[in-house]
Amino acid sequence: MNKIKLFLSSVIIAALAANAILFNGCTVNINANFDLNDINKFMNINSLKETYNNETDIDNTIEAVVAKMSLDEKISQMIIPSMRTWEEENVTDLNSFDELKEALQKHQYGGVLLYGSNITGNRQVSKLINDLQENNAGISNASVHIPYLMPVDEEGGIVLRLTNGTRMTGNMAIGATPDPVTNAEKTGTIIGEELAALGFNADFAPVIDVNNNPANPVIGTRSFSDDPNRVSKLGAAYSKGLEENNIIATYKHFPGHGDTETDSHIGTPSVEKTYDEILNTELIPFKNAISNGADLIMTAHITYPLIDEEHTFGDGTTKGYYPATMSEKMITDILRRDLGYDGAVITDALEMDAIKEAKLVPGEADSTEYRVNIAKEVINAGVDILLLPADMIDPETVDFYDEYINEIAAKTEAGEISEERINESVKRILKLKIKYQIFNIDAGEEDNNEDEQVSANILTVGSKEHHEQEMDMARQAITLVKNNEDILPLSDSVKNIVFFGRREADSVTINYAVNSLKEEGIIKPDQNILVEYYYDPSSEEKLHYTDEIRENISSADIVIGFSYNSGNSSLDKENPQYTAMTSAIGETHKAGGKFIMISENLPYDAALYPDADAVLLAYLGSGLDIDPTERNENPESMPARNANIAAAIETAFGANTPVGKLPVNIPVIEEQPDGTLSYGEDCLYERDFGLTF
Q: Within this chain, do residues 539 and 629 fall inside the same structural domain, yes or no?
């Protein structure tokens, strides 16, 4: 595998100032259009570290580089596009898409964001990343070649892109373990090792939102806790694990997405809190991250009407509030001035509906005019990196990026955007890339063992060792909050057991766990196990609760039902899940059986089904359709499966002792006069509660 030539050092300053340098006893003449390749052989990263070991030297070097860059290059450095597909074909091999390669070389973008559609295997994505970096290095007219940020959304738990990696338990499950700080760092370390092995250099994690709203539909188990101080500690520990592997941690979503009931992918959430209120909740983890040296913070597309200034929207008459992503008050005044942050700030994806469909600025939605006007507000607010203004999927979007960059440049030249503001952002981006050795000096000699080393590193991705640590953590996270008549652990005298899964695909993980327990002799040969499911997304009414299922449930000694809570939808009595679960509990009890609920996702459903005889919380409902016994491209590699549900089933049968404690408060659920359900003010189960046996 070819190395990417990375070029930056004190040579630039000397070359620009004197057109010649003396380096290691060799005089190198440099003209005004110097090519860093000519001087690369005289230099190496060690000399850079020895020569530039303080902030002033780095800043001077960056000043010289920025002075050399064109306005197009500077604006492009502030943009990270994605390219999920090209002409409706998934982009997994860059060399199969010559048009796309040429398109990426038209501007020196700051990075490229990969999604699941770009990833089919570990070696494949490693090659794709390398090819992207090489293609970027091949830009012929660049004043200086600046390698890409290669970020990815690999939070662990419910959000991941490496289907051949290690999923880990998710943040709320980490928060439930007895030693969450250690487990947060371990999670960051495992994810960091796997990302670094593949060539990524930044992770859009950790989430440090405080999940203080049970109805939140988008953060949920991505949050460590509803306690801001706990979130602070665990976010710092997670980031430490990433950064020890030279992966940039991205703290998100500033100023806090936890107390919302709208998903900003599809709408614009609003938080009705004062500045003092968020100082004491949402901003605590961000203040802590900044004090610990945060290098990258991601914004949220959320409005704060009690804090921010009102704007006139794009139609010229409607008044309202910009999302924090576009707000000078939130980014410059609060994040930079009040909290003292001078690192890089990146937007959440600008293609999200909270921005794209909100008619915030002049122009038709999706038009170049609209998006450029959005970019103007974002940049002037103090943000440095524009993430995903559009997905580069065809020649039309390539043309869009040409126009987008040209029109941002035109607004800069017209004074609507300060070029100094642009320069500030580029300096922050370069400083970030230097710190993480993305932009540095390569000795120029190929390492003959590099291919062997890359192969060895890739073997760690989804390795047996990583999955064993994941499983250990999942077992620690399982939280028992109800156990009437000590029904758990299940006795082997229980003969008829029905697993009532949410979807048909749940059977993969359920059967894996059951078969493992049979092999261990914990489930006996004379115990009868049936696996059913109640939710069918392919049917019109979604409910899959047949007469045969009713009969099986009524014949069972034990029914183990799986609930998936996300936002307010779980409180809807018309929801197929609510219908199925309440019906199954009633019919189980009518027949004399016992009902155990396993919560797959948010733990708030512990209050939704008060008649369940026992309640176990697992905090993760993704990846249940993945067979943990499968092997991928490496004999030691396994797919990103769900360890939490397997651990919960083990716990039900006594193969694991529950030690988890609630990382959030579980409010009571109240029935309103109109018959609807809502979360109440009182707690049913308080944070840190958990039973054992």
A: yes
